[in-house]
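Data deposition worksheet. Section B asks for the primary sequence of the deposited chain exactly as it was used as input, without tags or linkers unless they were present during the calculation. Section C holds the resulting structure in C-alpha cell form. Section D is free text for depositor observations; keep each observation to a single sentence. Incomplete worksheets are returned to the depositor.
Section A, Depositor: J.P.
Section B:
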Amino acid sequence: MLQATDWVASLGWQPNPSQLEQLERLYEVVILGNTLLNLTRLTEPSEFWEKHLWDSLRGLLSLGSWDELTEQSLTAIDIGSGPGFPGLPAAIALPNGSFALLDSTKRKVDYLQQAIDRVELSNTAAIASRVELLSQREQYDLAILRAIGPAEVCAEYCFPLLKQGGRAILYRGRWTLEEESTLATAAEILGGEIATVDAFATPTSQSVRHCIVLQKTAETPAKFPRAPGFAARQPLGCKR
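Section C:
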C-alpha cells in the first residue's frame, strides 16, 4: 500500500496511523474475501489503492473540503456496496459519520460484516435487503452509489432514502450530456436536482472519472421507489 505522503499529494487527506492501519486491514480482508466471492479483479496493491481506495475517497470531495466533511456527523448509506466501496473507505476517513452498507446478496453482506469487524469500524453496519424494500425512508443525509446501474436508476434508489436537503454521490466513469439530461428529468420527478458534476482524473492511470452530486429539494412521491426491478425495466426520464 502507498504511504501517507501519497495520500496527501494526490488527495489532500492526511490519514492518521490508526486510519492507515485500517486501510491495510481492509486490503487484506478484501483479498481474502476475493478467494470465495470474486469481489474484485483489482488485487495488485497500487491498482487497489487507486481504483478502490483513492477513488472512493476522492468522490467525497465532491461535497466539500475535508475540514467541512470531518466536522459533520453524516448518516450515510452505500447502496449496492458489494466489496465495500465506497462505503468502507468513507467510514474510515469520516469516523464522526454513521454508515450503512446495503447489499441484496446475503453472502456479500456476511463478508461486509466480517470486514467491518476486522477493520474495527464502530460507525458502520451491514444490511441485507433490496433497496426497493428498505423501510428507512428519509433517514439519510448522504447516499453513495458506485457501479450499480444507469444514473436515473440510481436516482430512484437513493432519493426516497434521503432527508430533504440530503445529497447523493453517483460514481461514474465517462459522462455525457445525454445522460445528464435524462438524469435531470428523473431527479425532478423524484424531488431533486443535479447539484454538481465533478470531473477529474485518477492520479496514476489518469482514468477519467465523474462524480454526480444530487440534492433532494422536495419530498419524494410515495410511489417511489417502485417494486423491485421496475426502475431498471422502465427507467425514469428516458425518451421512448
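Section D:
Residues 17-37 form the longest helix (21 residues).
The longest strand covers residues 162-172.
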